[in-house]
């Protein structure tokens, strides 16, 4: 860490003088803008004091340090901030000499004791002091109780002033909303103040005439992401409606969690629902569109990543569930959430497999396959190829969102005959290879078909084949998904399945992908005893090998 | 120097108490009767003595461990307060023992300030502030305490001391939010801080009222509050007025408010200064809500008006030297506020003024009757 410069010290000293007791909104606004850099400066100061031998030396190097810290301790805006307060106390601890050697150090000790008294007690002979003394609580309890009451009063006020302004369609009367939000910046991590933070966010979401300070939004979002602030769902959603960057950060956090932690795949649904994003998306169409924009960009960047696809699929499922659970009169039509795809494709894909009878699955998938093929044919003939590509991408994106039908197709492929396999293999190929990159679509189709035939013979007849060679082609994910479906759903004996898996899954990278797919299948298929036993057996195999 | 000897021997015995472990707090649970009660009283006495010693030079012998024990004893006393402050019979014993201990300590230590029962609720805080203010407290001890506050010791040990960081956080937050005013008309622009203070006051009275036999104790509470407000008498009066006007929707404070008003009546001087110093709107509101206050207010206005003297040379009503009287313009302002509040207060004021004017001879000429002139201002 860099040493403190004279200029820095001078700058912050001037600021401390200028801020005074932080009684004016302007001073508070200025502190809120400087708070983070002040904290960094205090950290540097702590570090410098740690490496200084004694207080006399510290006072010699920074003659203003006492005055500087003293002023900050008298500034409630600074002492209300958790990090600022801790650093101030730490500086005081470092400056306090356990064995003062001279008058300077004795004076410094005396001064620190006075500051501590100031931090903990009211001035005597004031009504506030008398009340605190006689109400029969320890001071900490008294102030925490007072704060809770104050927050309740202000929260009610913020809520009421919203109701009046919405009813009368007048300018919002609580014109101090902005100043209140500034005052709340250092308080966002204070548990007692939580309800007021939520009320401010909700207020500004419903009443467009008042504004919250930028620093307030940043502070709330940071505290929320680091789990230092717990707010009710409505307030979190209000924050996302108010601040686009907060929403984007929440989506990125979810992405990071899922992509960086393999365990997250095991309970993906919980992770996704806990992020509150599906619920927010169901209630606010624009949130859904923004979230999906972030997903879209992530998917383009890592097309082959199975966890990414799994996340998108689970997110969409959770979103559809919340949407369906809403009251019909409050529910926006699903069409508005998917503005870029043709309606005829939307309905069959958004239908949950559980809403279609099992015997009709094959028919349903054939229907989807035909619609899709027709759609792709039309796009090829389109003159504007750029527009055509975009349209194909959107349809493919929808297919990834509705990956549950791809899962069904892969499962059905284990048991269907050759003529019925066509549309299913087509869907699977398109899902894994949406672009005709390198004009390889014919080759992809051939690989898919070959893999299917080989796997069938592998699982159903005791012949060996070269599936592991296929696993090394560009269609690894496709082949792997077919393989696992065969391993789980084919009537082959467990020992046969184990043999096949051990023979075929030799590459460590492929094993990892297989594990990931298994986790997501387990999520989807939980409840079925026989399937579960198979799944567990496969997981064990992959683990031990 | 016999008292010095006593002092030293007492201090020694007290020091030995610091060196023993704090009595198991559960003792207090069974304190209500017999021998256990004697144990509790003995512990109380020791802790009060301990607090007294913490403010003397003898503290120079303390170390980190001694301070830890002292804080445990202080916490024990806080517990006693929490458990028994609303229980008149146990409280009586505690107060008696406190009084006796205070007397003894006053003999031993010059300038000793006695501890009241409500001080017990804040024992650890008093101990902390005492140690900080005592120049004899060893520097390593202060450094140790400071380390516990500043370096994030939020475990059980930090809990047993005073949580300086948390306390300072809540105080700062109260300062930041307390100044915001609520715009609702019913609260006439009072700050959130003032509103909360008045709730704390009413709740305290309510808690005391919820147990029988606490009348005198509640009165004492208000007396102490007034006394300790010192120079903040105006804010104390505003606090009382706000509390009387509080219309909290979540709790019913009527009984507490009645008690507050009775207490005010018992302190005629205070009621009179309220009538003189509170803003006219506040007095009007109080008059609307509380008939007792209305009478007192009207009396005060009448008294002020009758003491005014007409100065013929300047053509003005002049106050006599007595400062406890409102001037003519102030009276006009106060009456105007009553007048504008609508019925029934307006009608009542008018009736009374007309009656007074008639009693004064019913003159219509300026400068003869103060009532005539006031009525002219109002019409």
UniProtKB/TrEMBL annotation, chain A:
Pfam families in alphabetical order: Fanconi_C (PF02106)
Entry GO terms, CC: Fanconi anaemia nuclear complex
Q: Supply the InterPro entries for this chain.
A: FANCC (IPR000686)
Q: Which domain of life is it from?
A: Eukaryota
UniProt gene name: fancc
Which GO annotations describe the biological process of this protein? cellular response to oxidative stress; interstrand cross-link repair; nucleotide-excision repair
What name is this protein filed under? Fanconi anemia group C protein
Q: Which organism is it from?
A: Ictalurus punctatus
UniProtKB/TrEMBL annotation, chain B:
Task: Name the source's superkingdom.
Answer: Eukaryota
Q: Which GO CC terms are listed, alphabetically?
A: Fanconi anaemia nuclear complex
What Pfam families does its record include?
A: FANCF
Gene3D superfamilies given for it?
A: 1.25.40.490
Q: Per UniProt, what is the name of the gene that codes for the protein in this document?
A: fancf
Question: This chain belongs to which protein, by name?
Answer: Fanconi anemia group F protein
Give the GO terms filed under biological process for this record.
interstrand cross-link repair
Identify the taxonomic lineage of the organism of origin.
Eukaryota, Metazoa, Chordata, Craniata, Vertebrata
């Amino acid at each position: 860490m860099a040493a403190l410069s004279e200029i820095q010290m001078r700058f912050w000293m001037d600021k401390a003088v200028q801020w005074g007791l932080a009684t004016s909104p302007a001073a508070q606004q200025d502190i809120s803008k400087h708070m983070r850099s002040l904290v960094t400066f205090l950290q540097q100061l702590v570090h410098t004091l740690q490496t200084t031998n004694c207080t006399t030396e510290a006072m010699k190097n920074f003659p203003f340090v006492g005055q500087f810290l003293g002023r900050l301790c008298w500034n409630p805006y600074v002492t209300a901030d958790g990090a600022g307060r801790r650093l101030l106390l730490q500086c005081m601890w470092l400056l306090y000499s356990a064995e003062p050697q001279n008058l300077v150090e004795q004076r410094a000790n005396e001064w620190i004791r006075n500051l501590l008294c100031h931090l903990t007690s009211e001035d005597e002979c004031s009504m506030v002091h008398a009340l605190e003394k006689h109400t029969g609580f320890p001071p900490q309890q008294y102030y925490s109780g007072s704060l809770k009451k104050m927050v309740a009063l202000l929260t009610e006020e913020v809520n009421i002033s919203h109701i009046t302004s919405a009813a009368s369609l007048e300018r919002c009367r609580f014109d101090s909303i902005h100043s209140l939000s500034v005052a709340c910046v250092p308080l966002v991590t204070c548990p007692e103040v939580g309800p007021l933070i939520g009320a401010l966010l909700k207020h500004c979401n419903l009443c467009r005439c008042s504004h919250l300070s930028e620093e307030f939004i940043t502070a709330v979002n940071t505290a929320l992401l680091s789990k230092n602030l717990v707010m009710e769902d409505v307030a979190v959603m209000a924050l996302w409606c108010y601040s686009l960057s907060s929403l984007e950060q929440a989506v990125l956090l979810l992405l990071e969690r899922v992509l960086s932690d393999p365990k997250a795949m095991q309970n993906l649904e919980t992770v996704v629902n806990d992020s509150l994003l599906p619920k927010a998306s169901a209630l606010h169409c624009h949130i859904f569109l923004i979230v999906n924009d972030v997903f879209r960009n992530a998917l383009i960047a890592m097309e082959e990543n199975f966890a990414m696809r799994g996340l998108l699929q689970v997110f969409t499922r959770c979103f559809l569930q919340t949407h369906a659970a809403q009251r019909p009169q409050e529910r926006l039509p699903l069409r508005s959430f998917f503005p870029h795809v043709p309606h005829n494709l939307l309905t069959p894909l958004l239908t949950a497999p559980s809403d279609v009878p099992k015997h009709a699955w094959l028919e349903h998938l054939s229907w989807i396959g035909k619609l899709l093929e027709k759609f792709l044919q039309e796009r090829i003939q389109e003159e504007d190829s750029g527009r055509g590509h975009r349209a194909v991408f959107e349809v493919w994106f929808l297919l990834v969102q509705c990956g549950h039908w791809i899962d069904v197709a892969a499962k059905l492929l284990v048991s269907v005959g050759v003529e019925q396999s066509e549309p299913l293999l087509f869907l699977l190929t398109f899902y894994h290879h949406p672009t005709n990159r390198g004009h390889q679509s014919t080759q992809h189709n051939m690989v898919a078909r070959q893999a299917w035939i080989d796997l069938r013979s592998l699982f159903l007849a005791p012949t060996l084949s070269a599936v592991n060679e296929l696993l090394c082609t560009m269609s690894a994910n496709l082949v792997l998904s077919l393989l696992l479906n065969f391993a789980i759903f084919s009537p082959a004996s467990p020992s046969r399945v184990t043999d096949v898996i051990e023979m075929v899954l030799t590459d460590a990278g492929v094993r990892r992908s297989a594990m990931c797919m298994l986790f997501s299948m387990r999520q989807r298929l939980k409840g079925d005893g026989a399937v579960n036993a198979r799944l567990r057996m496969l997981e064990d195999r992959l683990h031990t090998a | 120097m016999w008292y010095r000897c006593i002092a030293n021997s007492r201090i020694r015995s007290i020091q030995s108490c610091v060196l023993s472990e704090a009595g198991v707090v559960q003792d207090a649970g069974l304190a209500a009767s017999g021998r256990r009660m004697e144990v509790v009283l003995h512990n109380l006495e020791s802790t009060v003595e301990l607090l007294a010693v913490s403010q003397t030079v003898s503290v120079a012998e303390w170390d980190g461990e001694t301070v830890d024990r002292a804080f445990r004893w202080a916490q024990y006393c806080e517990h006693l307060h929490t458990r028994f402050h609303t229980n008149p019979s146990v409280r009586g014993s505690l107060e008696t023992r406190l009084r006796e201990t205070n007397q003894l300590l006053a003999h031993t230590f010059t300038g000793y300030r006695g501890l009241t029962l409500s001080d017990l609720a804040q024992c650890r805080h008093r101990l902390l502030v005492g140690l900080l203010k005592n120049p004899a407290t060893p520097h390593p001890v202060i450094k140790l305490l400071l380390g516990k506050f500043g370096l994030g010791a939020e475990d059980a040990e930090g809990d047993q001391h005073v949580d300086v960081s948390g306390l300072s956080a809540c105080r700062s937050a109260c300062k930041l939010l307390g100044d915001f005013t609520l715009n609702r008309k019913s609260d006439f622009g009072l700050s959130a801080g003032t509103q909360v203070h008045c709730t704390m006051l009413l709740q305290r009275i309510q808690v005391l009222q919820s147990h029988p036999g606490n009348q005198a104790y509640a009165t004492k509470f208000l007396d102490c509050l007034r006394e300790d407000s010192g120079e903040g008498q105006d804010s104390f009066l505003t606090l009382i007025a706000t509390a009387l006007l509080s219309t909290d929707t979540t709790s019913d404070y009527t009984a507490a408010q009645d008690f507050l008003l009775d207490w005010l009546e018992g302190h005629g001087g205070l009621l009179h200064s309220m009538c003189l110093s509170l803003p006219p709107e506040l007095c009007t509101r109080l008059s609307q809500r509380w008939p007792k206050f209305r009478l007192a207010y009207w009396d005060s206005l009448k008294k002020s008006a009758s003491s005014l003297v007409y100065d013929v040379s300047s053509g003005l009503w002049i106050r006599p030297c007595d400062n406890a009287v409102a001037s003519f313009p102030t009276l006009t302002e106060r009456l105007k506020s009553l007048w504008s509040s609508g019925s029934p207060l307006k009608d009542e004021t008018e009736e009374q003024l007309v009656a007074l004017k008639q009693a004064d001879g019913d003159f219509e000429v300026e400068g003869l009757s103060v009532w005539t002139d006031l009525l002219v201002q109002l019409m």
